Amino acid sequence: MKVLYFDCFSGISGDMVLGAFIDLGIDPVFLESELKKLNIDGFKIAAEATMKKGISGTRCHVVLNEDGHHHRHFEDIKRIISNSSLSDDVKKTALAIFRRVAVAEAKVHNVPVEQVHFHEVGALDSIIDIVGAAICFHALKPDIIYGSKINVGCGWVRCAHGLLPVPAPATTEILCDANFEIYSKCIDGESATPTGVAILAELGTYTPTTPSFIPEKTGYGFGGKDFGVLNALRIIQGRKSEPNQIMVVETNVDDMTGEMAGYVLERLLKNGALDAFYTPVYMKKSRPGIHLTVLCEESKLSSIEDTILRETSTLGLRKYPVERICMHRYFKNISTPLGEVTMKIAEHGDIHRETPEYEDVKKIAQESGKSLWEVMEMVEKYK
Ligand SMILES: O=C([S-])c1cc(C(=O)S)c[n+]([C@@H]2O[C@H](COP(=O)(O)O)[C@@H](O)[C@H]2O)c1
Ligand code: NI
Known about the structure:
- The protein has about 375 residues and is an alpha+beta fold.
- The radius of gyration is 26 Å and the shape is globular.
- A hairpin with a 2-residue loop joins strand 20 and strand 21.
- Helix content is about 35%, strand content about 35%.
- The mean pLDDT is about 95.
- It has helices at about 15-25, 30-35, 75-80, 90-110, 125-140, 170-175, 195-205, 260-270, 300-310, 360-370, 370-380, and strands at about 1-5, 45-50, 55-65, 70-75, 115-120, 145, 150, 155, 155-160, 160-165, 180-185, 190, 205, 215-220, 230-240, 245-255, 275-280, 290-295, 320-325, 330-335, 340-350, 350-355.
- It has three domains: about 1-240, no CATH class; about 245-325, Transcriptional regulatory protein pf0864 domain like (Alpha-Beta Plaits); about 330-380, no CATH class.
- Bound molecules: the ligand O=C([S-])c1cc(C(=O)S)c[n+]([C@@H]2O[C@H](COP(=O)(O)O)[C@@H](O)[C@H]2O)c1 and nickel (II) ion.
- The site of nickel (II) ion (NI) has 5 residues, from helix 4.
- It is an enzyme of class 4 (lyase).
- This is Pyridinium-3,5-bisthiocarboxylic acid mononucleotide nickel insertion protein.
- One of its GO terms (molecular function) is lyase activity.
- InterPro entries: Ni_insertion (IPR002822).
């Protein structure tokens, strides 16, 4: 299982993310050629291997020519990304990151999301940072990205609105919709930007302490400012064995129709649940209700939580980690006089169990006119 750990000891910005990904091994030529699929001119990726505070890493920034300094609305940005020839996965991730920035700006400036007018954040370099991060993410295909506490800096930052407090209002709103702890230490200035925080909030899972995994390599992406301390995002890449720990997410509802309940299970399984099921319960005021249980990997937690809160009538949910034991499973085909049957084999220690796939047994029973019992007995003789 591939792990990336974003160590945000001096915050995170779009440039720092791209720099760290390139330092980790993403080819800048590949990145630029993918970005050209946006069909917009006026930019170049400048990635330079360099040293800061004696540490080698990569400084990456987007170089814009005159055409690049456009102001855009969220609608324009959505159109550019959707109409590009990037993969659907990259488009989906980039749009989700941008939406976080747009929702935050809408809230801060009290305008509808679609009409958010990006001056700095919407400038071409943010599009490049966000789409670039999505490209790197889908190229590396991590199973999980962990994110540390974020050192956001302190003081004031000068931007198009004037002098704003750090973290900037947009950054703060993005953080309010994420689940990352923030702090400020040793940095006078803005170390976490809206773009950087939105990327981490979308791709990452917060971890208050260093996660347990086997580190394999590191990438340092330098920021452009000099804060006196090392201004870099460090991504540590590593691996850990397949999770034997999964999450259980639960909620109770008593005011959904049966049709809605069925739909919710379909959505949950589509959005990454390992299993999802209902148990009948009696709730307050003796109301018959349903208890929803969802099993999922930690990396799918935010998608599962979102589905439950969006698609059910619940006002909250519970979640907790559980250990699981999985038997090793594989398949083999056997030939019988009535046709091929796939056997599912499950093993654990000295336990060995072979079971015919139900759909194969059913098909043979229907085609031969025999009962399911007779077909099962017949299969036993040929396995
Ligand atoms: O462009 C806008 S509207 C803007 C809003 C805010 C608010 O907090 S509101 C902040 N900023 C600042 O712009 C720069 C660029 O940010 P990136 O995420 O594009 O790197 C940064 O200093 C923001 O705090 C812009
Ligand atoms: Ni703003």
